[in-house]
Structure formats: structure tokens, C-alpha cells
Design a protein that fits this description.
Blueprint lengths: L1 E3 L2 E3 L13 E9 L3 E12 L7 E13 L4 E4 L2 E4 L30 E4 L2 E4 L23 E5 L2 E5 L5 E7 L6 E3 L2 E3 L27 E5 L2 E5 L5 E6 L8 E6 L2 E7 L10 H6 L3 H6 L1 E4 L3 H33 L1
Antiparallel strand pairs: 1-2, 3-4, 4-5, 6-7, 8-9, 10-11, 11-12, 13-14, 15-16, 16-17, 18-19, 19-20
């Protein structure tokens, strides 16, 4: 374990000895020229003493021995190749004589010929024990609490400050023994302002007024919302131009022979008057009674004057009598 700048970390190794002891490993083997070799393991500590330290191994073959002229290297062992007096001109016997128990094939792997008897002389190599790595505790961001700047903070498993637990300044207390101690300061609560009374919305009245819309007269409510139709300005007269002005229908008579044909019924009814023909245009009232008054107003005035004169003359005659 090593620490730097308040951070602690595990160090895998500091020197080569921490990784293991260099030694021979595995069984010997035969090489050229009747020589015996054996693997040799070497342990190395890389970046020793730092957080990036790690162990590595390398295996090479090392020379052990060379068999005698009368021996042959087999299975990594030097074995006798024959008995005294054997010239090699005839095949060796398949069964070795009692005096030469190891002849002619030698001993199996792991044994050596001692007094012409194959005996277990090979000792298996001892492999190095790798270092036992420490077990780290489970990380906990809320492992303990501590005071700092009159505040209680959480600290993790490694003693690093993590999160604020409580601010003792807000309660007028003092941070001691990882807690806020002392009487709690109770600030005066401000008086909440009175909420203003919302004004009562006036009720909506239907059919409050009439206005022009799309050249017709429509009802509108008290809030100005369009409602249903009040009056259609279409009078079904071909010789009039129907419009809506100031919430009233206006029918303008056009006796120009273009708005309505000269041979149409409406032209004969409304445009036959010579005055209309001369002027070309005239306003048409919204009902038949008004049209009648406009058409016969001269005669009506004459009749009214005659009636008035008759009444005056009749009264004067009555006074003389």
C-alpha cells in the first residue's frame, strides 16, 4: 500500500523478489550433442513501487550437463547405452541380462539407473507461490461523517469528502463530534402577504348586439364573440347590390342594364321609372311599404294638402253658421 496526495493505492510489487524466486521449472530435456537442458523461470517487477507496478515472468533453457560417451540422453536423463563387451555388431537382446537391469533401453522418465536398477531419483520442481493480494473493502460514499467549515459532511471508505450532510450555520449551531450541537436558532417567519381578491368576471350575455359579418348582420355576445345570424342582406333582387353597413342591410339599386338585364322582371319592377333610368342608380328600401311610399309620395302629398284645405274650409264655414 502506498499513498500520494491523500490518495492510497495498492502496489503490486516493489522489487523482483516480491514477484517470486528465480529457479528451474519443469523436467529436463535432451538437446543436441547428448546435452541435458532444463527450463529456468525468471521473475521481474515492472514499474516497482508505483500504482502501475506489475509482475512478469520469462522462461529460458539453461544447460545442465553432458552425458558420458557410454551414455545416451533420453527423457532428459543420461542412460547407459550397452553392457561391457558389446560391440554393436548384433542386435541387442530384447531382455536385459540380470546383471544389467537397465540395459538396453534405459529407465523411464523420472528414474535413473543406479546399480543397474531403475530408481525414482527425479524430484518434481517446486513452483513459486504468488503473493496474496489484499481484499479491498466495499466502496461506500457514506462511510463516515466529519466536520468542516461548521458543516457536517459525508466521507467515503477512503476518507474522501463526498456530500454535505447538514449545514450547522443554518440553525445557529456548532459542528462538533460530527454533528451540529447547541440550541437551534429559530428565525422569525415572515408574514405572508394577503393574496389580492380576484375580480369577478362579468357574465356573458348572448345576443347583446348586432354587427356586420361576411356582408350579413350577425348576433354578438357581450364579450364580442360571433354568434348566430340576425338578418341576411340578400333580398333576391337582381337589380340591387346587397351590402351590410353599420349593422344594417343596404340595397343599392343599379339600373345600368349590367347588374340586371333590361328584360328581367326586377328591372321592369324597380327600374321602369324614368327617373331611375336617367339616374341609373337608386337606393331600394328594405321592405315593400317603403318602396310604395317612395313610388307614390307625390300623390300622397297632394292628397294630404287637399284634405288639410278641406278641413280648414269646413271649419270656417261652420263658424259662420
Amino acid at each position: 500500500m502506498a499513498c500520494s496526495d491523500g490518495n492510497c493505492y495498492y502496489v503490486a510489487c516493489s522489487n523482483n523478489a516480491d514477484c517470486g524466486a528465480n529457479q528451474f521449472t519443469g523436467g529436463p530435456s535432451c538437446q543436441a550433442n547428448n546435452q541435458v537442458y532444463q527450463n529456468y523461470i525468471t521473475y521481474t517487477c515492472n514499474n516497482g513501487g508505483t500504482a502501475n507496478a506489475f509482475c512478469s515472468t520469462s522462461i529460458t533453457q539453461k544447460y545442465q550437463t553432458t552425458c558420458l560417451a557410454s551414455q545416451t540422453c533420453r527423457y532428459g536423463l543420461c542412460m547407459e547405452t550397452g553392457n561391457p563387451g558389446y560391440t554393436g555388431t548384433t542386435p541387442p537382446p530384447t531382455t536385459p541380462p540380470p546383471a544389467y537391469g537397465c540395459y538396453p533401453y534405459g529407465c523411464p522418465f523420472g528414474q535413473s539407473c543406479v546399480n543397474n536398477v531403475c530408481q525414482n531419483t527425479y524430484t518434481p520442481p517446486t513452483y513459486p507461490q504468488y503473493p496474496t493480494y489484499p481484499t479491498y473493502p466495499t466502496y461506500n460514499a457514506y462511510a463516515s461523517k466529519g466536520c468542516f467549515n461548521n458543516k457536517v459532511y459525508w466521507y467515503d471508505t477512503y476518507g474522501t469528502q463526498t456530500y454535505l450532510y447538514k449545514n450547522c450555520n443554518n440553525t445557529g449551531q456548532t459542528c462538533s463530534n460530527n454533528a451540529c450541537v447547541g440550541p437551534v436558532y429559530q428565525p422569525t417567519q415572515p408574514t405572508q402577504p394577503t393574496q389580492p381578491t380576484q375580480p369577478t368576471q362579468p357574465a356573458t350575455n348572448n345576443h347583446a348586439k348586432t354587427q356586420c359579418y361576411q356582408n350579413d348582420v350577425y348576433w354578438y355576445d357581450s364579450k364580442g364573440n360571433l354568434q348566430d345570424l340576425f338578418q341576411s342582406c340578400n333580398d333576391n333582387n337582381q337589380c340591387t347590390v346587397d351590402t351590410c353597413q353599420d349593422a344594417q342591410c343596404v340595397h343599392t339599386l343599379q339600373c345600368d342594364g349590367v347588374t340586371c338585364p333590361n328584360d328581367s322582371t326586377d328591372y321592369a319592377t324597380y327600374c321602369a321609372d324614368s327617373q331611375n333610368q336617367n339616374n341609373g342608380t337608386a337606393a331600394v328600401s328594405q321592405n315593400k311599404f317603403v318602396d310604395f311610399i317612395k313610388k307614390w309620395y307625390a300623390w300622397i302629398i297632394i292628397v294630404a294638402v287637399l284634405v288639410a284645405l278641406f278641413v280648414v274650409i269646413f271649419r270656417k264655414l261652420s263658424e259662420k253658421v
